[in-house]
Amino acid sequence: MVLTQNPEERVPSGTAPIFQTDNAGLDHLAFQLFKIQYAGNRVFRDFSDALGRYPDRVTELRQIPFLPIEFFKTHRVVTGDFEPALVFESSRTTGPASRHLVRDPGLYRESFRRGFERIYGPVRDYVILGLLPGYLERPSSSLVFMVKDLIRCSGHPESGFYLRDHEKLHRTLLDLENTGRKALLLGVTFALLDFAAAFPMKLEHTLVMETGGMKGRGREMVREALHATLGKSFGVHRIHSEYGMTELLSQAYARENGRFRCPPWMKAIAVMEDDPLREAAPGQAGTLNFIDLANQDSCAFVATADTGIVHPDGSFEVLGRMDGSALRGCSLMTA
Question: Which residue, 30, 43, 64, 263, shows the most beta carbons closer than 10 Å to its own?
Answer without folding.
Answer: 263
